[in-house]
Amino acid sequence: MTEPVTDPLTPVLTKRWTEPDAWSIETYRRLGGYTALPKALRASPEQLVALVKDSGLRGRGGAGFPAGVKWSFMPKDEDKPHYLVVNADEGEPGTCKDIPLMMADPHSLIEGCVIAAYAMRSHRCFIYVRGEALHCYRRLHNAVREAHAAGFLGENVLGTGFDIEITVHAGAGAYICGEETALLDSLEGRRGQPRLKPPFPAAAGLYAQPTTVNNVETIASVPFIVNAGSAWFKRMGREKSPGPKIFSLSGHVEKPGQYEAPMGTTLRQLLDLAGGMKDGIPLKFWTPGGSSTPMFTAEHLDVPLDFEGAVEAGSILGTTALQIFNETVSVPWAVMKWTQFYEHESCGKCTPCREGTFWLAKVLERMVDGHGTEEDIDTMLDVCDNIFGRSFCALGDGAVSPIQSGIKYFRDEFLALCEQNKAERELAGARA
Amino acid sequence: MTTVEETTQTPVPEGHVRLTIDGREVIAPKGELIIRTAEREGIEIPRFCDHPLLDPAAACRQCLVEVEMNGRAMPKPQPACAITISDGMVVHTQHGSEVARKAQEGVMELLLINHPLDCPICDKGGECPLQNQALRHGRAESRFRDQKRTFTKPIEVSKQVLLDRERCVLCQRCTRFSAEIAGDPFIELLERGAHQQIGTAKTADAEGWGAVTPQGQPYQSYFSGNAIQICPVGALTSAAYRFRSRPFDLVSAPSVCEHCSSGCAERTDFRRGKVMRKLAGEDPEVNEEWICDKGRFAFRYVTADDRITRPLVRENGKLREASWTEALRIAADRLAEARDNGGVGVLPGGRLTVEDAYAYAKFARISLHTNDIDFRARPHSAEELDFLTTNVLGTTPEDGVTFTGLERANTVLCVALEPEEEAPAVFLRLRKAARKAGTKVVHIGQFSTPAVDKTFGTLLACIPGEETNAVLGLREHAADVYAQLGEGGVILLGERAAEVPGLLSTVAGLARETGAQLAWIPRRAGERGALEAGALPTLLPGGRRVDDTEARAEVAAAWGLEALPELAGKDASAILTAAANGKLHGLVLGGVDPDDLPNPELAREALARAEFVVSLELRRTAVTEYADVVLPVAAAVEKSGTYLNWEGRPRPFDIAIENTGILSDCRVLDTLAVEMDTDLFTQTPQAALADLDRLGTVEPPVAQPGWTIEFEGEGPPKSPLRHGKARLATWHRLLDNGSLQDNEPHLAQTARETVVKLSTATAQGIGVGAGDPVVVSTHQGRIELPAEIADLPDGVVWLPANSGPSTVRASLGVGHGDLVDVRAGGGE
Known about the structure:
The structure holds two protein chains of two kinds.
Chain A: H1 25-30, H2 36-42, H3 45-55, H4 67-72, E1 83-88, H5 98-104, H6 106-119, E2 124-129, H7 134-149, E3 165-170, H8 180-187, H9 201-204, E4 211-215, H10 216-235, E5 244-251, E6 257-262, H11 267-273, E7 283-287, E8 296-297, H12 307-312, E9 321-326, H13 331-345, H14 351-371, H15 374-387, H16 394-431
Parallel strand pairs in A: 1-2, 1-4, 2-3, 5-9
Antiparallel strand pairs in A: 5-6, 7-8, 7-9
Chain B: E1 16-21, E2 24-29, H1 34-40, E3 64-69, E4 72-73, E5 78-79, E6 90-92, H2 98-113, H3 129-137, E7 155-156, E8 161-163, H4 173-182, E9 188-190, E10 197-199, H5 201-206, H6 224-230, E11 236-238, E12 251-256, E13 265-271, E14 274-280, H7 293-297, E15 312-315, E16 318-321, H8 324-341, E17 344-347, H9 354-367, H10 382-392, H11 403-408, E18 411-415, H12 419-422, H13 424-436, E19 440-445, H14 450-454, E20 458-461, H15 467-472, H16 474-477, H17 479-485, E21 489-494, H18 503-514, E22 517-521, H19 527-533, E23 539-540, E24 544-545, H20 549-558, H21 572-580, E25 586-589, H22 600-609, E26 612-617, E27 629-632, E28 641-644, E29 650-653, H23 665-675, H24 685-695, E30 725-731, H25 745-749, E31 756-758, H26 760-765, E32 773-777, E33 782-789, E34 796-800, E35 802-803, E36 806-807, H27 808-812, E37 819-824
Parallel strand pairs in B: 1-6, 17-25, 18-19, 18-21, 19-20, 21-22, 25-26, 26-27, 30-34, 31-33
Antiparallel strand pairs in B: 1-2, 3-4, 3-5, 3-6, 7-8, 8-11, 9-10, 12-13, 13-14, 15-16, 15-27, 23-24, 28-29, 30-37, 31-34, 32-33, 32-37, 35-36
Helix pairs in contact in B: 4-6, 8-23, 9-19, 9-23, 9-24, 21-22
């Protein structure tokens, strides 16, 4: 195996972002864009699936499922229409990687879509964009028009006989529609709630036809793999989680933003890139991949941020949305805010998530308001236990992460809120 | 996981798998859901969203169990309602797994945090799955200390269905029922998270979300009561039953629906001699677990104020109460007199049990010496009589079309039948067949009714009255349908087929030609039974023909008589004509409404002219206005008996409300016959049925080519809408002015809108748009209704037969296929 890249920065997906008019097809082509497509169309779909499999590219939406394996689930025949759906419903708190990518370099996604569609024998691709990201929606529409005009989309792409259309669709403002089956329901015009599986999308997805749903970053990585090969891709990152990754740093850092680095980069390294903690106030806690991933503390500065590393340290990689909080932030307060988000975004389909997030938010609000009890902490943990792994989809699991990890690392802060309450109550009792 | 010795294992039958549930080895059919297999083994896993007839949702998460597959435990507890069993699977339910037990207890606690726990004032209390399962599987006390989410108390999902959102556990059984089984939209989940709720476009409007939902479309369904019945909490209640009684105060009796020819199984719940509610009974062969709203809610006609409980006799032009002895004496004497002077005709009506119909059939022959008897209180024809004799008589579920058979048919052709309006259980089966088995449903009718859409059907539209030509044209114009009929097809015919000359014979011919199975689905519950019981002018009980000397002799011998009247009798129309002309002197009528008869005017004339009229009735009606003697009879819940449904399947039921002192028709006729010195041996329904059974049935006559009237096509349909004339299409709606729906205001409000339907071109032809008043008239009268544009053929108008002001027979004196005048209304 070739020597792994250890450079802190690996601008691959982001390499064009700072160019003037980075989003235009001219810039994209000037900087090597649409060179992978002709190569891909000369290969067979099977070869492309094998290439992506071999590259070890794992889904960038959070779950990390090997992309090539997912593609290989699509039927080999074309009895039914096949669909490629790109999940651009980026809504995880703290996550900001797909929207900047689509803003700055939409053609890399489009080129990836055409290649992926070809590899999966699909002639219709949908990009489901988070409804709030109107600017992004417009930019994608424009990019699709440009690609069409240039012959990269439409009938008989580059004279190869391959037909492909891309439809850019805006969501209507529901976090749950980032769940792939809820996204499909929403795309079909229904109420976005997750579907019962099986059937899995590869068997019966959009309009009950074979469908693959991939994250933006996953698909945008594909042209680079086609151009540079799987060995090149595997040189970056770690054995089981190869490739570059866009880490979005937000919160109390000097220079928040997107940093593309190999999988397995640590927060310590990323903080160096981002100019360190804001105003030098020490780090207190952070999330490795959005609020749905159990939080880390300063102890975890050297945890390699890849799928395995995060899990070994007791969290998950998620979307590599690093929300960084310094010592001025109250953990119970932050946990309450996150929990309110999940309460608001729970789709309501299943009992544990619908009722549980409602209950947890109530308890946390009361606690932050100074009316909690120690018993509440244990109740919350038990309610979390009754939600985690019991809900219909992963939203419920994500919703309890901040609470479970918050209490795990900062139980004292929760207790302190209750102590204060206890003291006040005793005082009130004495006065009476 | 324990390994069982290979040698000691019982073999697994084909299509089955072996699994372990709570340490017990189970062999069960492949593809079954864990929850079902466990239940059969006596292990009840709690559940809310699961329903055996609905697709799995796995939403409530109450049925979580631990599952091991291929020797590996699945990391999370799994919903038993959504996981199919597989070979070698190991399941640990709440009985064998602490994880499952805690998961279930946790979900139950979560379900209750926002539930009002108002069991003491909830209709469901005492029969509530939430209450029962919370006691069995829940924690003794909740740890929830905060404020519950509240909603405004009940909102109207429809005029009949009320929703208390606080009680709802969002299992989605109601929305899934409506979407999957009934196919009625506009009841859906709204909002999300803890604010998620069941609602309709109307309730959304009320909440001020009108901007984000389609506005104004109400939830309209003929099956809404089922959603109430399957609600596992007290969230859905009916306006009719709400706060009426507690389940533990009710006495339940299994019963059979009296409203249509499907014969749905029901449960009648009553208290102190009054029916409080009806629920769907379970019969997989017939109605599965569903009934229509008419069957469920229309029962208060029994307790109407004008119910007749004592015999009445006419004195000085007025009816007065009389003793049974007096009334029977007068009836017997005067009927004998009328019989001997000119004869008596018998019109038993179409709503009788087999036993009661048999009593009428026997009474006509023995006591009145006549074959002038006809149960068909509706348009009918000699052709129909012939069709019924050769194609319907004697068919049974063993050799004929059945509900379950519809699911196996590749194609079902509905001719002159509107299944959702006329036989709702048939409609549900057709929808299920189309949804689950891919059965193709084809309707020969006039427009795309909701049933056409909901059975994923194809409409072959034709001019009303031209159905015969449409059927004749199938081979040429719908060759695919014609071909499919030959490959396991079924043809269903409705009662209005009798109004179209040649249609019944043509369809019979089509069935013979293609080999398709044929079934006749009358609208009324008693028609099929009355056919077998011989309540027809040409038929004796058990399928014997009046013109068959041997058959006549056989019946005469069985009845202990020397001979039976030889002459074929008159049909209903002929009976009424004869009475109106003074040729028949007496009439005996069961449940008959003159306005249902082909010529209501003639019927009234006949009633007025007849020397003596005896009416066996529940309530004061148009017939009792003319009757000289009225004998009260029992309603369905007050008697026992048997309906024969359209499949020919006996649907016996026992008496629900006892000791009312009201007698069934067969008993009244038996006593009347005794007064006339004849014996019917129909003192009780049991005796009547035994008597009929002793007689036995004969092989139904085999339909032979040439034996039926072969219809010759009349050529292309006549050009419609000339000089303001249009062809009328009309049929009965499920919920209409029918007297068995009286006293049910909530039900009545769920009826479909009373409109006149016509095509865009027809509407333009008379200068009206949607919603504008249109007048449909004949020389006899007029009906004015708002217009609704539909995909009817041009020159055709459709009116509901008997809804609100649209009383077609009574007001216009015409029927399906007749010519009417159409013009814009609102003028005078």
